[in-house]
Amino acid sequence: MSRRGTAENRTAKSDPIFRNLLVNMVVNRIMKDGKKSLAYQILYRAVKKIQQKTETNPLLVLRQAIRRVTPSD
């Protein structure tokens, strides 16, 4: 039996611009050496390019791309 208390579940924070958890997860994967602001800049620049080229919602394109690369059950 542990002397410590049980760990509380934390809710994941969403990003400041899109308010989306998926964007936050992608930023955390891009991040190197704790430089989250640089990871946000990289992702937002990519999202801007997606919107300019496809003229659709870039979050839908991002979600679709992640679904395609994840393994299916």
Report strand %.
under 5%
Order of helices and strands: HHH
Which consecutive residue ranges, at least 5 long each, have pLDDT under 50?
A: none
The end-to-end distance, rounded to whole angstroms, is 37 Å
Radius of gyration: 16 Å
Overall, the morphology is elongated
What's the number of helices? Answer: 3
Give the proportion of residues in helices.
Answer: 55-70%
Largest β sheet strand count, sense and barrel closure:
none
* Average residue pLDDT: 91
How many β strands by DSSP?
A: 0
Helix/sheet category: mainly alpha
Domain Small ribosomal subunit protein uS7: 2-71
GO molecular function: RNA binding; structural constituent of ribosome
Family: Belongs to the universal ribosomal protein uS7 family.
Pfam families: Ribosomal_S7
What features would you describe in this structure?
InterPro entries: Ribosomal_uS7, Ribosomal_uS7_CS, Ribosomal_uS7_dom, Ribosomal_uS7_dom_sf. This is Small ribosomal subunit protein uS7c. Keywords: Ribonucleoprotein, Ribosomal protein. GO terms for molecular function: RNA binding; structural constituent of ribosome. With 73 residues, this protein is an all-alpha fold. The chain has a domain at 21-69. It has 3 helices and no strands. The longest helix has 19 residues, at 36-54. The radius of gyration is 16 Å and the shape is elongated. The N and C termini lie far apart (37 Å). The relative contact order is 0.12.
